[in-house]
């Protein structure tokens, strides 16, 4: 924040009495008997319980016309005030001529749930974003993060807030970190903060966690397929490993994301990556024309979809110019009987396609397929034989013991 923010927070530390914010200065509803009156605009609202609980606890009020206006936006200052009031953090009095929110901002900084770098003091009355709300909420529930020496990047904020249940996703788990926040959403988040601080656990939106994991880790396999990829990591997952540069310096390709999709879930956030599923086939190893359609009887499966790009290819005589991403492979899954694929039995991972073998960069994995003791991924350059392909194992983990016991 600007230097003025730091100076203001220093002044507040020297004031001694409890704050007294006037109705004229604060954009909050004036505390009144409204708290005892049934709010007339929340009876059928999704956040009714949280709103009524928040009003009862006294960290937010209704308006004098007995409304709450749940869809009104909340400013950064308002959200900070509600959090500080809800967690009962001591607040100093407002100094003469200062903004009504100054004592709450100072208390939040002193507590460690707000940083001078979070936003400019001049913008404190702008609507708070979901990202900013998530960051404050995380710090309000984690003493470690209240240490001013600890910083957390934006993607980690959204991932950890979703994983804890502090935030739920919008439609299909969409994170929308830049979107503004309503009064209803704000009190819902604060009720979750209070529950966590009291030792409770929260409902988790796995769609939101998966979406956040994709942004942070460039994959969602740990959320969608934890029973396969959730064991001890031998080759640890690291997004930096998703780039392959050949030893001859002629080719470089990057796997941008490795996306897990649950075909049985019609609301899977990443299902649209596959296009028209009614036309999608899995390759039986013999004939594109006679390969089975996925939708007919193979939806009890996962799909691993590979998104990537070629950074450079300086010799198309050595590396295929038609490849739009590195060559990928899935390791650790056992093959079924030699005749399974020809007979339409999907017993091991197989390539997906619409018309040709390379038009869908994905593999279908039957949910009852048998794994070895580990599973993982490798990438390589699209070398034209006999050129070297520089195969690179980018990740593998041990299969959780309980899964192995189910197969043996």
TrEMBL record:
<keyword id="KW-0732">Signal</keyword>
<dbReference type="InterPro" id="IPR051465">
    <property type="entry name" value="Cell_Envelope_Struct_Comp"/>
</dbReference>
<protein>
    <submittedName>
        <fullName>S-layer homology domain-containing protein</fullName>
    </submittedName>
</protein>
<feature type="signal peptide">
    <location>
        <begin position="1"/>
        <end position="23"/>
    </location>
</feature>
<dbReference type="Pfam" id="PF00395">
    <property type="entry name" value="SLH"/>
</dbReference>
<dbReference type="InterPro" id="IPR001119">
    <property type="entry name" value="SLH_dom"/>
</dbReference>
<feature type="domain" description="SLH">
    <location>
        <begin position="34"/>
        <end position="97"/>
    </location>
</feature>
């Amino acid at each position: 924040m600007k230097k003025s923010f730091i100076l203001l927070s220093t002044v507040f530390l020297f004031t001694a009495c409890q704050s007294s914010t006037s109705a004229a200065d604060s954009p909050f509803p004036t505390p009144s008997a409204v708290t005892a009156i049934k709010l007339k605009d929340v009876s059928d609202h999704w956040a009714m319980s949280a709103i009524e609980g928040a009003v009862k606890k006294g960290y937010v009020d209704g308006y004098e016309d007995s409304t709450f206006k749940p869809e009104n936006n909340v400013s950064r200052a308002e959200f900070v005030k509600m959090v500080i009031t809800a967690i009962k953090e001591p607040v100093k009095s407002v100094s003469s001529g200062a903004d009504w929110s100054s004592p709450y901002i100072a208390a939040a900084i002193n507590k460690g749930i707000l940083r001078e770098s979070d936003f400019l003091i001049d913008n404190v009355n702008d609507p708070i974003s979901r990202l900013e709300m998530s960051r404050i909420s995380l710090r309000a529930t984690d003493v470690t993060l209240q240490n001013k020496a600890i910083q957390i990047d934006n993607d980690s904020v959204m991932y950890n807030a979703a994983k804890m249940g502090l935030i739920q996703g919008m439609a299909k788990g969409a994170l929308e970190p830049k979107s503004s926040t309503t009064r209803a959403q704000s009190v819902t988040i604060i009720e979750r903060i209070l529950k966590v601080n009291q030792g409770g656990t929260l409902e988790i939106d796995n769609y939101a966690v998966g979406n956040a994991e994709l942004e942070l880790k460039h994959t969602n396999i740990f959320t969608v397929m934890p029973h396969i990829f959730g064991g001890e990591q031998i080759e640890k997952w690291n997004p930096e490993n998703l780039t392959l540069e050949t030893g001859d310096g002629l080719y470089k390709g990057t796997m941008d994301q490795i996306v897990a999709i649950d075909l049985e879930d019609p609301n899977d956030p990443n299902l649209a990556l596959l296009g028209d599923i009614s036309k999608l086939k899995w390759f039986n190893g013999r004939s594109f024309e006679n390969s089975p359609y996925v939708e007919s009887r193979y939806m009890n499966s996962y799909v691993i979809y590979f998104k990537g790009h070629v950074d450079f290819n300086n010799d198309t005589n050595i590396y295929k110019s038609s490849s739009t991403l590195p060559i990928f492979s899935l390791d650790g899954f056992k093959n079924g009987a030699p005749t399974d694929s020809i007979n339409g039995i999907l017993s091991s991972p197989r390539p997906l396609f619409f018309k040709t073998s390379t038009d869908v960069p994905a593999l279908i994995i039957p949910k009852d397929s048998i794994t070895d003791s580990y599973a993982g991924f490798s990438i390589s350059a699209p070398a034209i034989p006999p050129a070297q392909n520089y195969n690179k194992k980018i990740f593998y983990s041990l299969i959780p013991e309980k899964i192995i016991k189910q197969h043996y």
